[in-house]
Structures are given as structure tokens and as C-alpha cells.
Write the C-alpha cells for this entry.
Amino acid sequence: MAVDPVPWFVGGGAEHSPEVARLLAYAAFRGSEGVIGPEALAVRPLAVPGAGVRVLAGACAILNRAAGGSYQAYAGRLPSEETLPVAATGSGSGRSDLVVMRVEDPYMPGEPWSDPVDPTAGPYLFPRLIAGVPSTTRTVSQLGLGYSAIALARIDLPLSTGTVTDAVIVDLRRVANPRRERTVRTFNPGSSYQVTATAYGTGLWTNATFNLDIPVWATQAIVRTSVGGVSITVGSAYGGIRTRIGDATMITTQGTQYDESVPSGAVQDRKFWQDNDTISVPSALRGTVQPVTLQAYRSSGSTATVTANTGTSIAFDIELLESPV
């Protein structure tokens, strides 16, 4: 007879095994593990920084690494914030500790965990601190302990330190199956738009603009903007372009500089520019619709004109991501 003779889901009072239920969770998470949501299970200093950390509330997916646990995952949540003590370091050296979320399931073969006082209510899911790990540790698997656990943060304490601050906490969380959404828009200016601004300021360049729907879960934006066929007349042109998302509240790419020169005797030259960056999306912009626009400037020392016109094409490629914050 098969090990799991009752698949999910058979009616008529059939009994379904924990293994099959965990298989369902594994399939739902597509074999991935991590936190559920950008802010889930973040590790922060105490309200008044001291010898400990807070693990914020949240949910997670954790692969079953016990013997016989292949193709299985646990889905769990920490309903309220918990604190973990962190021992001070001595004068001899610093220390790295790993904060993890761990499933302690005593009913899996070979697991060392004791039965809880109340098998019905558990608990079986705990935030734990593993002291004295290598300073390069980023995952629980690197430690070779066989735990069913995910890494939340590493605490890198210098020597003679007993206070945990943000500066010593390295966020290691990963979102399980992060959501992502990509938007591509292309434009032809249609008319001539010359760059006249000497600084980015709030001015826009060309009529290439569209409204971007930013989901509530988006915490990062990968921006790829290309401008082909920019007209440069005889002379030199120095300046930059950048992509702006938002209006009153805005985020912008760092910007890409251009340095062009067209020799005398030529009528004009056509250039191809790109502006690429990954930028954080603040909470004020999440769940809103914001305009995407292109900004440009030319330094006061430029002698050539810089123009987008009917021979110019513009493309915005923006990918919104769900990542820990």
C-alpha cells in the first residue's frame, strides 16, 4: 500500500496525513521558503536599545528538513512581537549571532525536540538565536545543523559590546515567492522638446508620461529607461537624464550623465541614452497611482542643443518588486 493512500482531499470521513497537508503547503509556496510580506518577522533593536532584539509579528514558509520531509513545508505565523536576549561580547573579540524562525516538530523521525506541554496548542514555531556563527553566514543551511528554519537576521557585535543597534543587524529575510509586476510603455515625442533646464529641478522633458499603478506590496522598483535618436547639434553637450515616479511625493533614479560632442561641418548627430537604477518605493507611494516622467538638464557650459523630436523614441520599463523592508 502507498505511504500516503489518502490524497488531498477525499471526503467521506477519510483521514489525511500531516505529510500530505505539508505537501500542499510546499506546492502552494512552489518549493520556496521565507517570510510572507515585506515587513514580516523583521528583527529590530529593543525600543530602548540594549542586550536584546525584537522579532516583529508576521508569517513565514519553512521547508521541512527532517528525515522523510522532502516535498513538504510548514506555514506558520508569529501573531505578536517577541524579544530575544543577546549576550554581550568580551574584550577579546566580537561575535556573530543568527536570529532564525524554527519549527520544532517532535513527531518527525530523528528530530531532537521534546513534546510540548499541550500537543494540541504547541507551540511548535519559535524565534531562536544561534550564537557564535561565522560572520559570513546568510542562511541556516550554511550551518549544517539540519534545522527546519529560515534566517531572519545576523547580529554582528563588535568586541566589548552589550547594546544591539540597527548598525549591527544584517537583515537576511527573503520573501517566499515575491510578487512582481512589470510595466512597459513606449513613446514618440511627436513634437520637438529641447533641453533647456540647467538642473533637474521639477521640470519635465518631452511629453512621454504615463500613470503607474503601484501595488500596496511594492517596495522596490527596477527602472530601465531608454531614449533613442536624441538630436545633438554641432558643439558640445553635457548634462544628464533621470526617471521620476510621482509628483508631490516622488522618487527618482540616480540619473545618467551624457557628454556629447558633434564636430563642425555636421548637421546633427543622433544619440542613444539609457537610464537604469533600482530604487526603494516608500510607503507613501504604495497603493497609489503616480505619473512617470523623464527629466533632463544640460550644463551651462554646453554649446550644442539637445532635442527630442519625431525621430526620437522613448521606452520606460519598470518592474515593481516585493522585497523585505
Residues 30 and 177 are 8 Å apart (CA to CA). Residues 18-28 form the longest helix (11 residues). Residues 180-321 form a domain with the Jelly Rolls fold (CATH 2.60.120).
